[in-house]
Structures are given as structure tokens and as C-alpha cells.
Amino acid sequence: MEFDLCRTLWSHGSDFLKNGLAPLHMASQGDHVDSARILLYHKAPVDDVTVDYLTALHVAAHCGHVRVAKMLLDRKADPNARALNGFTPLHIACKKNRLKVVELLLKHGASIEATTESGLTPLHVASFMGCMNIAIYLIQHGANADVPTVRGETPLHLAARANQTDIVRVLLRNGAQVDARAREQQTPLHIAARLGNSDIVVLLFQHGAQVDATTKDLYTALHIAAKESQDEVTDAAIHYYPLCKKIVDDYIAYRLSVKEFMM
């Protein structure tokens, strides 16, 4: 059946289907190994792209089809081909939690530090999506845990933003900078405090996060937690740094005085 489909597409000169996928993309999407083999035998371009610059290897990575991905790589598919948004097959495999494809791509020369248009590395993607095994694998194979995006956010910032507590723990244990600064001078602690994730806040404190670090607008994480009524965060901060109670009390008093003045 695979052969009949492949022969039909080829005999009708079907370079691209209406949805922008070439026959090789379709074979990769459906894990049709025999069809992909026939198409490649008949000189189908291995790195043909869709309107979004997705190759068949991108599609195989998305679907987790290791056999097709290996066949494409053996036929010299570009492991670092960039889609319109800059995503490589490795980025996509990380996003979809396809560990076997990640392993295969790295063995065939995929760049572990490739960046998207917004500056995301594969580790950024795995960290945000909570793909623990992939994050560990990338770190074990030399991924830099402190690469900033165009907004200055490291994988630790994104893990905190996505409430990925276990990923935060792994990144910190592997030397991620606990007080890395994003564009607005936000640290991961500022992000965790705003979202009210006391578990991440405690982890950051345990690894030496500066409780008095300020954003561009001179807010500490405690100011943000108090502003957002994140009581568990302020309680955690006071437990680790008793002097924080004065900061919180002073900030609350200031907010109340401003509110009364405005009335």
C-alpha cells in the first residue's frame, strides 16, 4: 500500500501537495519508511522545504519517527536546517519530548547550541516544556545552561516562568547562574515570586539567590510577592532571611499610605 501511494504521487509529478508538504514530508509524517526509501531512491530532494521552511527531518522529529529520521540523516539531510522561526529539528524534538530523536540528531551533527529567531536554544525549549530526560541529556552533552535569549532569559528563567520545579533543580545542580539577569533586570527569583511558586523560591534561596536583587524599576522579589499577595513566597523568604520581614512590612505600609493618599 505504501508503494502504491508513493508510485501514484510520483507518477503524477506531485512535487508539492496543497498543504505545502512534499511527498517525502508526507512519508515522514506517517512513518512510511518504505515510501521514504523509494522517494529518496528516485532522487526526491532530501531537504525540500514547506512554506514555513520545514524539512522532512523537521516532520520526523516532530512525530518522533526515529527510523525515518535516521534514513533522512543517512541520506545527508541537514540536521541544522532552520524553519521560518529558526527552529531546527533538534528544537522540535525537544519541544515534543522525543528523546530518541534528540540522541540521533546529536550523533549526526546537530548543533546543541543552535538558536531560534528569539534566541532559544534546545535547552531553553526542553526547560520550558518540562522535558526532564532531554534537559539532562543536553546538559550531559555540553549544553550551556546560561545562554540568554534576545530578552536575556536563560533556561532557568524559562523553567521558573513555566513552574517547572524539577527542571529548576536540575539546572541549579548543574551550575546555572542563580541570579542571571534578563532584559528588565529580572532574575529567576523575581519570576518565581510573581507567580507564587514557593518551591522554586526555596530552591533558588538554597542555591544563594540574592533576596535584595532589584529589577530595572527597583523592585525586589519580596516587593513583587507582596504586591501580588503571594503569602507563601514572603513566608519562605522570611524563613530563610528573617530581616526580610521588615522589607515586606515597610512595602505594605508604603502601599497603604499611597492608597489612603489617593482616596
Question: What layout of secondary structure does this protein have?
Answer:
Layout: H1 2-11, H2 23-29, H3 33-41, H4 56-63, H5 66-74, H6 89-95, H7 99-107, H8 122-129, H9 132-140, H10 155-161, H11 165-173, H12 188-195, H13 198-206, H14 221-227, H15 231-240, H16 244-262
Your description of this structure?
It is a single chain. The protein has 263 residues and is an all-alpha fold. It has a domain at 1-111: Ankyrin repeat-containing domain (Serine Threonine Protein Phosphatase 5, Tetratricopeptide repeat, Alpha Horseshoe). Helices cover 55% and strands 0% of the residues. Helix 2 (23-29) packs antiparallel against helix 3 and helix 11 packs parallel to helix 13 (198-206). The protein is elongated and about 70 Å long. Mean pLDDT is 88; it is low at 254-263.
